[in-house]
Amino acid sequence: MEKEIIALQLAHILGEEFTPEDLKQKLEQPKHSSHGDIAFPCFFLARHFRKNPQNIAEDVSAQLNHPIFADTEALHGYVNIFLDQSFMTDHILRRATHIDYGRHRFGNGERVVLDLSAPNIAKPFSMGHLRSTIIGNSLGLLAEYCGYKPVKINYIGDYGTQFGHLLAAYERWGDKDTLQENPLKMLSDIYVRFHEEAKQNPSLTEAGRDWFKRLEEGEEEAAALWSRFRELSLEEFDKIYKQLDITFDLTRGEAYYSDKMGETIAILEEKGLLEQSEGALVVRLDEYDLPPCLIVKSNGTTTYATRDLTAAIDRYRAYHFAESLYVVGNEQILHFEQIRKVLEKAGFPWASSMKHISFGMMLQDGKKMSTRKGRTILLEDVLEEARERAGGNADIGTGAVIFHDLKHQRQNDVEFSLDDMLTFEGNTGPYLQYTYARAVSLTEKADFDFRTDLKDGSAWELVKQLHLFPDETERAFYQKDPSIIARYLLKLSKHFNQYYANTKILQTDQTDQRLTLVQAVITVLKKGLHLLGMKPVEKM
């Protein structure tokens, strides 16, 4: 509200060359409260008006006038605006205590498809897969909160050359009884062994290629083994998803498209895009300074790219999405750029709506986790230990693991540390859970009437933090980065705990108003935790 009012007044003062929408984007929140609540920098206006920014700020400050402004000042080229605290506090508390506070409708019910999690069958669900799973889940929750209809797809890795390697490994070292008792451990062990021995014995790699070719051709033995590996893997994955409280609208593997890629190849051929290259079929992308996209290998087998192209076409036919988000690590940037450009060349206008939501790696001692190299930490083990360290409370333990990941900016790498996750001090999930429980306990100690006429200057910084929540949910969605919400919740919790430590809340003439403020904090914390995929805890 106040930013719109300021932007409209600025547009009137500065002239028709400047639109309210553009001016609103220029408004800033001062780092220091002594510089006001909202600041407008005038430096970009110096060339236009041929005046010193400070002189421009003085002219603008003198003309700004509205009942919600307590004062304005020109300082160092900025117009600093001080809001009427009583009016704004009343306005903010009325909104912030509403269950839908921070919700937007700009999505207009359009669909956003999210490709997330996507573990490979026959491999344990490691910490390395956590990032895609919880970043994608949070983005789905943010999309829904912004008025979209999210469609979460778990695109299981159940096809490709690596499964030929696995089948070759099982032929040599597999055991039916061990497979039934502990499927993912056994399959992971023989997969690691395969790649270790293949370094000295190249014939193993060739045997793996042969097994994958047999699988693609539908050979009975290969298909039966692959199907068993897939079934056992999905059962194990579901246990993890239940602990994380994550569900999907569709679980579909790459293999689903094994008999549908012919149409995609035919489309590319019809468009004249396929070219021979050393016996393989590729789509050249020279005009984009990208390497060719491999569609069919020289031995006649298809590729990951062929399946992703087919899946993209299938998803648009099914959902007519406004956006299609691929929540996949940074190492796949080139792959998704190739996919998008191939689809654009093939004449699919919706290809521009496909976005690779890349993210950094989960590191262990500074190194990437790798199943192939036998260097991995199982998520199941981490969740169990986190629960035990949290005194048996699964919500606190799981929330700690989720928040430790999501508090990092999406593109950054994350160093795994269970000790850092579970401390109750600092920037952690347990700190947020403790703050929420503390706020709830206050409202349980006394009955109170809903009163928004709070006269308490010490509450102003906390009130302003509450006011930021709608902007932060919108920004987090547009930037596709849940860490914006995570960092916001930490700031809100810090301001609340400072207020709690320095203010008598109960048994005063402002108790109703202060508990109404506390209730607003509870509402926003609960919604923010939900958007991260965490459950609030009312007692700790």
TrEMBL record:
Extent of motif 'HIGH' region: 119-129
Residue stretches making up the Arginyl tRNA synthetase N-terminal domain: 4-83
Domain DALR anticodon binding stretches: 432-540
Keyword Nucleus: no
Entry-linked Pfam families: Arg_tRNA_synt_N, DALR_1, tRNA-synt_1d
Enzymatic reactions: tRNA(Arg) + L-arginine + ATP = L-arginyl-tRNA(Arg) + AMP + diphosphate
Keyword NAD: no
Cellular compartment(s): Cytoplasm
Major enzyme class: ligase
Keywords: Aminoacyl-tRNA synthetase, ATP-binding, Cytoplasm, Ligase, Nucleotide-binding, Protein biosynthesis
Main localization category: cytoplasm
Domain of life: Bacteria
Molecular function terms, GO-annotated: ligase activity
Entry EC number(s): 6.1.1.19
PANTHER family, sorted: ARGININE--TRNA LIGASE, CYTOPLASMIC, ARGINYL-TRNA SYNTHETASE
Assembly information from the UniProt record: Monomer.
Family to which the UniProt record says this protein belongs: Belongs to the class-I aminoacyl-tRNA synthetase family.
Protein name, entry field: Arginine--tRNA ligase
Species of provenance: Salimicrobium humidisoli
Gene that this sequence comes from: argS
